[in-house]
């Protein structure tokens, strides 16, 4: 009888920990019984002071300023003592052993969740694995069960798509043997793209892509020097040494009764290991991938990314290190978390570079090109401006942010980002203008900065136009842009008598990992009455007129049948099709921040970004 009870308890623990039941819809509101896991006010203030002090020291070192230490001022680079302080700061980072110290665990917990975090938020982050959807048609989507960790899942999903669509093993080998003067971007086409059959990816291919993606992100966070992998001390090497049939049992036993409600809990269960080569990190990730697929997976990966970056470096990246990385009241991943996973730095803003506020103060944005990018609904609402680094990534894949959720948008061909001659000129002018814009994307610059833009872009304005633009003492982008549209190409403008040069037509795909009711055709359950709960995949047909197309030409923009990206109607052989009515959803507003005035169409339910 006892054996039967033990077996039943084991089965129950396995079901709870591995989450094999159909996912529940995302909760947009916290549970009413939001009990709080708190530390004392004194402990909270002490931890906050330590975090902010470490971040301040890191900033001062980066700017070459002296920092008081042990009663003595730190000398400048020429003084010779700064190396000692660097060693002290490095010593404050995570030890490269198997355990975090109690202090490090408290700093990590406070950095992620802050003081007074609700048990509801902790439960959300402790019950989300990194697992692919079991549904055949959406089997390459990482499915989300809980609200909150979507920022982590969406970033991993974007890198998984990169490896599945553009970097499978055979194409990597082909790229390595390709002459240097060739263009590897053209290797993006493969059998999966040609068939549009996402279900064709094998479980093995998806698993390899997931391991590669996780390893790539961790090394990106570790400045390509290290990857720290966080796992559970209760599991040890049991998963790595066990047979596949026993792995789930071992993990279920380890997770039975385990909860993270305080820094003390984190200290008790966490185990960390540091790897300095991608090969060793990939091997370890592959061995313990079931741990990341378990209900603790998303939280363990976030911790791994933070430790790979280094806690001091994370705080130095941020504009306000006193705020938690997981935001209240709903436990969403902050922009700092998403930026950390996309570009390797936990900066809070999405513009390029940094914004100087004067007096030695500045706001930090994204300073490097990225593999996969980011778009946000907030830009369409004029709350922020995404810079070119995130808006134009190496691969046509973007994490899409809304007010409360993160999803993924992608194309199957890199040609959607190719620019023709006039588009390249447009981008050149915009980039030069933005470089002089110190308003945080407000769209105006000084007269001095405007003359610098004209010199850099070789624009020759007639004197009356120049006087008109400079008359108010500052130049507004919208007014400058209208002048450029009316300025002949020979003078550096973009005047186009046809209004149709550079039109693009292509397909985009949108993934929403949160399980929702799907009402399209065969997507009903076998009973035919209740819609299936599963992630959403939507195909969008996009027609993009040139950004300089006058409004009177917009009525003639047609969404044509499927063809190659960048296809344009030309000459007498093309019969102008009757335009399809443009469909609208919030995702379209996001797309238009990347391709202004894009016309989008889809079949079935509108794509959802919430």
TrEMBL record:
Keywords in alphabetical order: Ubl conjugation pathway
Pfam family, one: MINDY-3_4_CD
Segments for region (Disordered): 1-46, 58-82, 562-583
Positions of the Deubiquitinating enzyme MINDY-3/4 conserved domain: 109-486
Protein name according to UniProt: ubiquitinyl hydrolase 1
SMART domains linked to this entry: DUF4205 (SM01174), UIM (SM00726)
Catalytic activity, EC: 3.4.19.12
Function, in words: Hydrolase that can remove 'Lys-48'-linked conjugated ubiquitin from proteins.
Keyword Ion transport: no
UniProt catalytic activity: Thiol-dependent hydrolysis of ester, thioester, amide, peptide and isopeptide bonds formed by the C-terminal Gly of ubiquitin (a 76-residue protein attached to proteins as an intracellular targeting signal)
Record organism: Gossypium mustelinum (Cotton)
Broad EC category: hydrolase
Family: Belongs to the MINDY deubiquitinase family. FAM188 subfamily.
GO biological-process terms attached to the record: protein K48-linked deubiquitination; proteolysis
Molecular function terms from GO: cysteine-type deubiquitinase activity; K48-linked deubiquitinase activity
